[in-house]
Design the sequence.
């Protein structure tokens, strides 16, 4: 299996690599496993002949899934596609536990900062924000949260965190973490008011959440402390540490646990197998959510790691609940 | 507004009360707010004329919602119905935080038991089990969990609880709590092996989870310790405390926080208003989930209790996210 | 064994009861087990003949111990006395875990308040404050703490609680708990600024911490909500709930776990036995701390409750550590 | 100020360095700040003339303090010495919070292991064990503890951890951490029974706790995974990761927070100043504990980091408590 990728690719390199993947003369892809939708896009658009031989697409990113739904709506999706981004084993594991395992690690590896008693402001209380907040509370930090969605805000209150606006606490925050999926959440005006020694990093989406560009002005001096750590110096001597230049700090400065990767990869592999093996007619040229039963299967494959022992329903219990003894155990809309 | 209900109703009383509600000569209901589906059932079946004047049904229980979907499937639902049981503000607040607030309270009020260091077995890690486990961990108990669903089991592991079968730990458990929604989860055979002084109670569904009937045998003696607490004595002198005769221990022996009730009641009220005011044609004779925007509105009404301050999207941010600034903020399938 | 005590004793009754205990014609006490030092005081002062037959005094309260040290200093202590108040199994169990087990219980039984997301101000971060803070954090409250001692304040920060002055947060506090051992910690001026619906209670010392007297003014109305709960109404309609009229809320409104009582009672019993059996000369007429080995013995007697299994030192390990294999395992000044 | 030390010193180098410190011709030390007692030992023994000019010794290690007490007992201590090892700001901060901040960090930096749901066995529940247990519970690990001291074991139970013997859980442990201060706590026999993939490390004392020597046998293969990480391979293919060859894993593989170092260093500096400035006669040639007031002063200097605001006693309150308004606030034996 040839691989086309290297660290430090340019944009041009990036597209060349994708092109190599889908258009090699020596092989013919029959399934696409994509993360972002770029391979899908290129193949469908530029190689219509090859795309006719594709039996299915598996996509795991928010962006890629969004594109697939648009294609489907426009009637331009010509093969079945599986949205694994919204499977439970993705949204409630990768998105929640991975940040919980990595945020403290990323902060420690880059700054060696003590976290007990530190005032931390987390922007966003989705799965990522929830994971970060739990981890930081666990090491004795005092956590504040900003939210736009009243439901997540109410969860946040019940979980014991104060819901504030950035302006309420920006002057006292020791550490600021973005986890919103949005852009310009932290802007120059905020950073101008932070105290010296504060640390800023992003756990959310791409490199858009912190307006890093606004820090590249002549009055501020950037000092590289070490790889992935810049100390920005204000004219009055104030210093703020910016991690990974605003890119995802856990991908840049920590290590994603292989267990979490395994869950997501297993989900993708099962989705590929399902689409490839499905009898003709089971899937049309549309976007599908992973069948609940496969989600459950992925989870069950990972339980032995924990010496976990499942309980089996008796026949009477299964009947009483209206369930098959082998699952699925929950309706499709169950939230976990 | 006449109310027909009293504590200690017989089954016959119960149906008489419902009949009074729907069939009074002096008034004519035009909306049904139901919890379990019995009023709905009676009206539709026995008072077809009156049911023609009903503009909508709001139902908040699992059972009632199940019946509505069956009616709809059978083409027998003649009015629009709103399933508020599956709104976020119900499933992720009432089901999760209410047990977290009440399980310790119920155990303390009935038994004055110290919880630090106690070994607690919780059957089920749905929302109710999650709430109980979090509360008991918070007071220093050692928590074990049983599960049938591998996804919930995996969450349980990641949350730091050992997933076991009942038989693995039944001999060492100090407290056993059921939270499965199923029947015969704890049977005589299990209780025969528990140690003296153990406490058994149910936080789940009805009074079916513990096989209480199996304890009513001549070889066991029941001693009433106080209201809602029975000490069951085995021939060898072993004693087990059974709370509320296996009925929901938090409803029987604790107090549900008014805040949680307020969230659910607000949801119901909004659903009634929506169905009543909706322009003709917006809802057909089918079962609907509460619109996400109403869920968010219910949450926003409860934030001032916590001095919580929401952040507002800028125009650019809303556009970037493809959202209205006033919500809804998440897709319908978002899990929270 | 005759007992002289009843609920609702007057001050006069109280002294009559103590007098009966120490001066009965039909018996002659030879040991004193005291909690507060009043029996000791009466016997030594009023019954010198009887006090000559006393072989030892065991005292478990701060106040009583204080009096004994004063007697000793003044050369007026005529028998050996054991200070069990400062044994580890008292200060680090009774003082810490008992509040942790009872504060939430006391709040729930009296007010049914939901604790998730509530802002709680605890005055004092000694053992009692630490126990309350841990319990309330465990149920999702947001905890603030006041302290006079910089060491306890620093512990508090590291444990993840914000150290404030009362004035910093009094307007936003939902619940105010005193745990200082001091007097007039919460005064009228503070309560005038609290928000309506707030709850005030005392977990510390006697009934001195909250200036309850300052609330008995003509402009405020007291409404008895239920036993141990008063609603104080301000002229503008603001209401504050005062629990147990400022007396210890866990003693008044909760139930002390029998396990904690057992630890303390065992300590007292062992101290009595030690003083009674000690060969002449081991103890002089002075105040002694409980020997470390007895503290360890008390702890070891309570481990089976938890299925806890101790590890035993090998001969080599004991030698390496300079310890006896049977303990004591720590120097007298070890802090645990 | 000349410094004599480098990474990777031999034993001989080590003593040469110390000799240079105390015997330089170009300077004359008048105070000793020691960590382990080696400089003190060398100076007193080999340079009696120089030692006569020493005004005081400050020692911060268990071992060094032990030696000083022995010298004092033997009447051979010729200068006043301060035991800062047993100051509160050392035992309850450095010993407790430093492990809490560093154990997860050390495990992540060396092995990238996911900690959620992992079964961790900690040997010892002193301050170090308490810190490790709290940190690991905070990230979702399931923690078991071994103890020899029944008091610490009882604390452990009340804190929600199961007290076991190594043999009870060695087969299921994913991670084993020693924190006892003892030797041969983990021996070959234990490691032979651990499961493949398990991780072993030491947070306690020197490199004695794990019998590393017992792993250097011909049947086992050592593979260096990276700096400070060895994979030991059993004949059947089982692999165990040993961190830092059994030396202190947080010193070897993590970074001690500068804040914790600051607390300890400040304590040492104040002790030096006190001994140097003390009027003749205040200290004799004996070992002294740091005065409580200095401990409090060290703490107060570190509170601004947390925006912590101390409360000041009123005159009446100070009088009621029998305290000076400026402290000390607790008796010498107070445990915190």
Sequence:
């Amino acid at each position: 299996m040839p691989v086309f990728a290297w660290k430090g690719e340019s944009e041009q390199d990036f597209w060349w690599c994708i092109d190599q993947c889908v258009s090699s003369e020596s092989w013919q892809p029959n399934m696409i496993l994509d993360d972002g939708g770029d391979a899908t896009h290129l193949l469908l658009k530029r190689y219509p002949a090859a795309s006719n031989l594709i039996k299915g697409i598996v996509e795991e990113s928010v962006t890629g899934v969004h594109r697939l739904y648009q294609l489907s709506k426009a009637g331009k999706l010509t093969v079945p596609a599986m949205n694994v981004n919204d499977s439970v084993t993705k949204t409630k594991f990768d998105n929640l536990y991975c940040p919980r395992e990595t945020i403290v690690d990323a902060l420690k590896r880059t700054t060696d900062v003590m976290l007990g008693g530190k005032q931390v402001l987390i922007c966003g209380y989705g799965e990522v924000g929830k994971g970060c907040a739990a981890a930081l509370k666990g090491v004795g930090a005092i956590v504040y949260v900003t939210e736009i969605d009243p439901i997540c805000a109410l969860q946040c209150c019940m979980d014991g965190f104060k819901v504030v606006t950035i302006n309420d606490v920006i002057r006292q925050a020791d550490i600021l973490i973005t986890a919103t999926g949005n852009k310009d959440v932290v802007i120059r005006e905020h950073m101008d008011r932070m105290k010296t020694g504060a640390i800023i990093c992003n756990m959310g989406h791409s490199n858009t959440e912190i307006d890093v560009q606004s820090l590249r002005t002549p009055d501020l001096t950037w000092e590289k402390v070490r790889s992935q750590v810049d100390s920005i110096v204000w004219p009055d001597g104030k210093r703020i540490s910016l991690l990974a230049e605003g890119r995802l700090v856990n991908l840049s400065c920590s290590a994603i646990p292989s267990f979490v990767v395994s869950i997501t990869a297993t989900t993708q592999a099962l989705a590929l197998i399902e689409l490839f093996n499905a009898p003709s007619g089971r899937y049309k040229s549309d976007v599908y959510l992973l069948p609940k039963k496969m989600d459950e299967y992925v989870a069950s494959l990972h339980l032995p790691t924990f010496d976990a022992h499942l309980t089996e329903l008796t026949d009477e219990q299964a009947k009483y609940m209206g369930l098959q003894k082998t699952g699925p155990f929950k309706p499709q809309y169950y939230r976990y």
Summary: Chain D touches chain C through 59 residues (CB under 8 Å). The mean pLDDT of chain D is 95.
